[in-house]
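go over my protein:
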Amino acid sequence: MRILFCNIAWMDYYKGIVPGKDEPKGGGSYVKENLDAHEKHNFDVVPLSKDAGYPEGEYCLGFVETKSTNGETRNQLKIEKIDGCEACKNETQVDDVLVVYCALYPDAIEKETYVVGWYKHATVYRNYEVIRFPSDDEEGYYDQAYNAIAKKADCVLLPRPARRKANKWKVPRKSKGVAYGFGQSNVWFAQGREDNEYLRNFLNKIVNQIEEYDGENWLDKQPERSE
């Protein structure tokens, strides 16, 4: 199965920043310095039409920061590292990917990373795409960058209480005694499953949990906003 793990800032709803109610936590220096996160809309359903280049319908647009090696331009997302996409070095996108969004739990003493949600059958892009949406702020619009997109019906945002329950959705980080998981990068391609039984078992567990999940989906749940 084509699968990609993405490390993003922790939020409860991902419907934009709501001061005092839902603000990004973790996610690196950009979030700390700017009190903002591009992934703040990752589970905010938007209607798109053929004018945007997609079949008419409702979608989620996912962002993960690919970082930069020169301090100026963002790195590409190396889609050819996704299992089953090794021949896609010259492609700009790949389809039918399970994108699993993960985040550091903000209240833990030690680093604990958990699944917050996922896109099934997603299209993943090598470089960022951008769509402009109308906004109520002074500019009257905002540009949403994304490197994954999926139909609403294929997206799930786990309720906050479910994410850490019984460590069911915990995702490893490479460390002493743990030979697989997130490293320094915000993307983890989970390569080497053929030679690593522990990794293979972990992936099978996560995929099965996703396929069998029938619990609450916070995709349509909104944070309380002050009037």
